[in-house]
Design brief:
Largest sheet: none
Shape: elongated
Pfam family, one: Dynactin_p22
Protein name: Nuclear distribution protein RO10
Number of strands: 0
Helix content: over 70%
Oligomer: single chain
Strand content: under 5%
GO biological process, one term: cytoskeleton-dependent cytokinesis
Distance between the termini: 147 Å
GO cellular component, one term: dynactin complex
Length: about 200
């Protein structure tokens, strides 16, 4: 069974794939599809090709990345050139080649269905990304405030440690020294009193 598409249908399918790739490319580089979203609505093949060329020119004029790539391609054309395909080997017989193709036939249909599913995936909205970008200054300000608060907390901890150390030295150690001094004076006074009592008793 011959599964080859008619030339007209193949041309339309090829144009649709090119427009789809152009949409993705513009979304990646520019964040939108304003130049290419209405190309496929025109049934004229020549008009669609001209619109795609115009969209590519506008995209290349706005994107620095494409300008750099075009400059590299003009200076070093071999960098972006596809590698030459390896020479075909004639060692395999026709039956072996056919069996290899038939063995991979199921994977072809799987890949084809996956590609069709990717084509149905809608582009993510850019509003959420724009909101995140708009919040960037506030996030930086909050980060700065958080850093200042952390530094202030660190300074308060240092002062608290100094106060606790001073309180311990004055009220705990100082009181202990006073108590020891008073105890020593009381013992000395007690000894003097006893000596005086002994003298009085002897007299």
């Amino acid at each position: 069974m011959d599964n080859t598409l008619p030339p007209e249908e193949l041309l339309v399918h090829t144009l649709a794939l090119l427009e789809w790739r152009l949409n993705r490319l513009e979304f990646l580089l520019d964040g939108g599809v304003s130049q290419t979203k209405n190309i496929g609505k025109d049934g004229n093949v020549l008009s669609r090709i001209q619109k795609m060329e115009h969209a590519l020119q506008q995209l290349s004029s706005k994107s620095d990345t494409i300008k750099i790539l075009l400059n590299l391609q003009s200076r070093f054309p071999h960098l972006l050139a596809p590698d030459a395909p390896p020479p075909l080997s004639d060692d395999l017989s026709q039956n072996k080649k056919l069996s290899m193709v038939l063995a991979e036939a199921t994977s072809f249909s799987t890949v084809s269905s996956q590609l069709r599913a990717l084509g149905d995936v809608s582009l993510p909205p850019t509003d959420s990304f724009a909101k995140v970008v708009a919040l960037q200054p506030r996030m930086e300000e909050l980060s700065r405030i958080q850093y200042e608060q952390a530094m202030e907390i660190s300074e308060l901890r240092r002062r608290s440690a100094i106060l606790v150390s001073r309180w311990h030295e004055v009220f705990i150690l100082g009181q202990g020294r006073c108590t020891a001094e008073w105890d020593s004076k009381l013992r000395n006074a007690e000894r003097e009193v006893r000596r005086e009592e002994i003298r009085n008793a002897q007299d």
